[in-house]
């Protein structure tokens, strides 16, 4: 599937406002997906019939930093996961039911394995952004979890639904 995806990196305040406006939920979230065209049963189009995956992703860098610490991964890995997660939503996947969740997580894991080298590049970019902000006092210094840390298998609740970790 080809298409166009715009990614906006923002903060909790902006995602809370967007979440309130578009979903009626007055809380911050990690990623919001806005498809350019409707997909799903209500639109009469199944995800399998879509040829293009196009839309906007809005990601909270506040959530990226917090969830990276919580799940003991780098910020680049967490940002990559949220991009993949949001893109899967644009493709019409969801995680409301157990079967949907298993399928979406399998797709997420497959995409993240394929994009592992790109996630490392995100680590470098985010680290340099953080160092530049730390020099001006606008961004907290980086907190990197130990390399040997493994994500919590129990999962954690997030605004994107029940989320299992790696």
Order of helices and strands: EHEEHHHHEE
The radius of gyration over CA amounts to: 16 Å
Mean pLDDT: 77
CATH class: Alpha Beta
Low-confidence stretches: 136-166
Structural class: alpha+beta
* Principal-axis shape: globular
Q: What is the fold-level CATH name, i.e. the topology?
A: Collagenase (Catalytic Domain)
3D structure, described in words:
By secondary structure, this protein is an alpha+beta fold. The protein has a single domain (5-142), classed as Collagenase (Catalytic Domain). It is 46% helix and 14% strand. The chain has five helices and five strands; from the N terminus they run βαββααααββ. It has helices spanning 12-23, 61-70, 75-90, 98-114, 116-136; strands at residues 5-10, 31-35, 55-60, 156-158, 161-163. The protein has a three-stranded mixed sheet, with helices on both faces. β4 (156-158) and β5 form a beta hairpin. Residues 136-166 have low confidence and may be disordered.
């Amino acid at each position: 599937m080809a298409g166009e995806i715009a990614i906006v990196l923002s903060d909790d305040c902006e995602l809370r406002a967007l979440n309130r406006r578009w979903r009626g939920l007055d809380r911050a979230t990690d990623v919001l997906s806005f498809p350019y065209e409707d997909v799903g049963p209500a639109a009469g189009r199944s995800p399998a019939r879509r040829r293009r995956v196009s839309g906007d992703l809005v990601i909270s860098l506040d959530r990226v930093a917090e969830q990276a610490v919580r799940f003991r991964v780098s910020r680049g890995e967490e940002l990559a996961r949220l991009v993949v997660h949001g893109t899967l939503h644009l493709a019409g996947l969801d995680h409301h039911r157990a079967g949907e969740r298993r399928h979406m997580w399998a797709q997420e894991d497959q995409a993240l394995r394929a994009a592992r080298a790109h996630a490392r590049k995100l680590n470098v970019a985010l680290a340099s952004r953080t160092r530049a902000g730390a020099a001006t006092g606008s961004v907290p210094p980086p907190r990197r979890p130990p390399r040997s840390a493994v994500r919590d298998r129990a999962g954690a609740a997030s605004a994107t639904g029940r989320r299992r970790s790696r």
